[in-house]
Amino acid sequence: MYSFIGKRSIRKDALPKTSGTIKFVNDLEAPGMLIGRILRSPYAFADIRRIDASEAERLGAVVLTPDDIPQKPFNPRLVSIHEVTYKDTYVLTKKPRYIGDAIAAVAAPSEELAQRAIESIRIEYERIYEPILDPFKAMEPGSPLIHERIMKGSEWVNVERNIAATLNYVEGDVDKAFRESDIVIERRFKTGKRYHMQLEPKSVLCVPEPGGKLTIYTTTQTIHNTRILISQIFDIPLSKVNVVKVPIGGSFGSSIQVNYLVPIAVALCLKSGKPVKISYTREEDILDHSNFVFHFRMKIGARRDGVLMGAEFENILDVGAHQVQPYPLLGTSLGWFVSMYKWRNIRYIGKAVYTNKVPACALRGYGAPEVQWAVETMMDELAEELEIDPIELRLKNYVGRGEIFWGQGPTVKSVIKSDGVPELLEKGRKLIGWEKRSHPSRKKGRYRRGIGLARGFHTSGAGGPISGEVIDYTGCILKLNEDGTLDYITALQDHGGGTLDAHVKIISEVLGVPPELVNLATASTENTPYDVCTHASRGTYAGGEAARRAAEIVRSKIFEYAARIVGRVVNPEAFKIKYDEELKQAIVYVEGTDIKIPLSEIARIAWQKNWGTIGAFVSYRATSAPPSFTVYFVEVEVDTWTGKVRPIRVIAGADVGTSINPDMVEGQLHGGFAMAWGMAFTENTVYEENGELAGRGLITDYKIPTIADTLSPEDFIVITADTYEPTGPFGAKGLGEAAMNPAVGAITNAIYNAIGVRFYELPITPDKIVKALRERGEIP
């Protein structure tokens, strides 16, 4: 059907990455560059009286303290509209609120001198408080306020009981629904505080240019929001700030915001008048960001026939010491919940609460893996109580085609137009051998196997028919070169999953130009239209549609020029374009005639005849955020003596509409499952009583799944649904976050099916499994 879409091909960045020639921010240098270092608070909760940096200055370092920086509160995340953006962060602070908060910074010609200078700074503290590490304790009357007041939009607001933000929602009569239910289940859940462990720790290089201009190279998902925030903090015109897009070594949401080291480097650059580079060590990076800790209370009611009657959802978010995005997360958490099943009556209580921990930000799924783990656990329990097959219960109640979908919370709603859930569940049921699954009570012995199921979704972007509280638009430029090749320029960041290769294939499909002739041109804020950031799995869906529209405009102009060249009366709409296998390039032709012009020839003639450049500029906002549905069937084996769990088989199903990059679809599902395995069993940052991380060593303290924990292709089977999304480019939807979201639920349901024990707190460590079995008398 397609010439390029759906075909496996070599990625544009394959050779640079495999050869090690690609340049990340940490690889960049500038003449006369200074090395920056940051002084971080050793206390989790304190007030500073005085900072003595005289020795650092004597050593010749450029020194920054809070007195040198505009004291403007900001939020490093600029995805929400101004009115609902909460601000409590300063570039440098005299009120550190977690171990790692930035107090001062230096820059020096060498890393050694910078380190000596930073170690020479002396801090005198006014008061050191006992840190508050539990959100429920933080909300108790009389607990010290971590922030006394913060800014919402342009207004100052007082903080009460350390509650950073709230969101409540009611639909229908929940209490009546519970009274009319035959079965009511209520459970509490808690997740771990995970670190993103992206391949690339964060870096920034800020270079001063003539005329007061700054050029910034940084680890980011959003070059335009970086530019805007730097302009706001330092009162610099946007035209004086240029942020260059540099390849990023993974992110998983860790750079959805403007990273804290960026404004620090800018301030050092402005003070010194020289280029300044700051690169985090891995130990510094883990003090910069983590995910939110979720405390859920869920209550659901259903009739005997499996019809859901109502649900109550209380969501307490531990946001850490500073706001990055908790208010919108309260909304999206509600959206993930509402869009899973037809609850019919809903009550939601959401609170985001400050603690003296590392600030939290988005981590692959933005709350969806956590919400879907809890919901799918409860749906499994409900199915058992009702004696209904778990698959049938889900099919009876899930939110599917033709129904309202909350793309990213209450203000982003659209109608579902493509739905592969029944197909994926049916395929997965057969492949995993669902009918042979036995009850856990029938399983004995040391090694016990179980099969679990979970379904879920993620949005393809954050667009909707009515603009809400989320900023979500993108853009691109596409131009035809004089030799028939093309330059494609977009601010949208590729995290490493091949998003821009999907754009190239879309352009190739429209114009008939082989992907190798489409150049991914160097992008910066100066030469690209605005893109909000690569988040919400919008890269292919929203960014790809912008690319498709640009290619359509270019194609139309090509046809106009072709009509001029032909010199006959030909309606431009009669022209068509395709890839010619014999010529190995695109040709423009008219069916039933001898008209056949290579695209390169059209470009050459237009150049020679001064007709002008063929190009397109597109700024695009999607009016939908269709769900990419995913389904996991997982078989595990539990060693009841040691509590060790290992995967046996996985059936990973995805509904992505048209698969632009099929190998990338498989890669996302493998990667998504690996991250879910880490979330389920090992990943957590533990805090000591003084607010210090219990361990920051990657090898000894923070474990992530490795290749040894993965499965062979024979045991990890990927299936896709045959669907077409009418709002997406060539029928495509996103996948990145959906690839992970329901996997934890499938894993934990499989553990229950193996040993008959459910776990409501993550991670599920071996000692927790052994303890649970011992308490039941299963093992001595």
From TrEMBL:
Segments forming domain Aldehyde oxidase/xanthine dehydrogenase a/b hammerhead: 19-129
GO MF terms, alphabetically ordered: iron ion binding; oxidoreductase activity
Pfam families: Ald_Xan_dh_C (PF01315), MoCoBD_1 (PF02738), MoCoBD_2 (PF20256)
Gene3D superfamilies: Aldehyde oxidase/xanthine dehydrogenase, a/b hammerhead (3.90.1170.50), Aldehyde oxidase/xanthine dehydrogenase, molybdopterin binding domain (3.30.365.10)
Keyword Oxidoreductase attributed: yes
Record key words, sorted: Molybdenum, Oxidoreductase
SMART domains listed in its UniProt record: Ald_Xan_dh_C
PANTHER family the record matches: ALDEHYDE OXIDASE 1-RELATED, XANTHINE DEHYDROGENASE
Record protein name field: Aldehyde oxidase and xanthine dehydrogenase molybdopterin binding protein
The species this protein was found in: Desulfurococcus amylolyticus DSM 16532
